[in-house]
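Task 17 of the worksheet. Students: predict the tertiary structure of the chain below and write it out as structure tokens. Keep your answer in the requested format; marks are given for formatting as well as content.
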Amino acid sequence: MLTFVILAITSPAFAQCDSARTLANIHDNYRMTITETGVLQTRAAARLYPLLAALDRTTLTDGLKLEFDRTRLNDALNNAETLAKMMISGAQGLNFDPTQHLKHADRIARLINRTSCAASGGGPASATASQRKTLSQPSKLPPLGALQSSLTRPGSLTPYLIAMMCGLMAGGLVYLILKSRLVRIHRMNRQTRKSIQITFDLAYTDETGRDAIQSVTALDISVGGMKLRIDSPMPEGTALNLKLKIGDTPASVVWTNTHYAGIMFDDLITDAEVVDLGTPNKNSP
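Model answer:
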């Protein structure tokens, strides 16, 4: 159940990061195609074109989980695909405006940096001014994959997942502590007690492993347990089944001595049941 909740919470974030990583791969190769020359430029174009040719743009844009102008993103992707195709085809007299293409690359970078997956401070969006140079003055680009790596570095989605897991674990630990026997005994000892005088049978397994029944008298009661007068001592922790008029009630021994024992109900009873148990039956003498 816990795994299902975690996956249900985080699956939209994972889908967003998948789309952001795809865009980051496109961005890095697109920017390198624009600003580099020679072999580096050709290799970047060779990586970029098949990425765009096989891209399912609807899945990509839906996965980003952002409000943005899809037409402008498609325009940027179309320009990137056209440029990459021209580069790898070896078009004669290739001439393009790097400024316009850098604007498209910047648009992609800004969109990626709006997602919850992008690490703050890194990525091309913070360095676009230095990268707006002509091909005759190639810029010092971050290494290929700079934006992709920013999406997978600790500091993006990972801390949120860690925090969420720690929160769930802490919540589970608190729940276990609150349900622990020691805490329940402490709470029972602070509950308001009512003096009563009722006799009933309780069933248990004795130290020899045999089923036993003992008639006991309750001297006081709270919603959490009873004080009993007993004939035979029972070890602490012994599981009991109390034959009460409100029905069979499971309990356990908290403390015991020769003549008395304190018991704790496995589940709290209600105030009304406390009153009911303290009220003599109509057919009682």
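Marker's comment: The chain has two domains: 2-164, 190-278. The beta strands are 194-205, 211-221, 225-229, 239-244, 247-256, 260-265.
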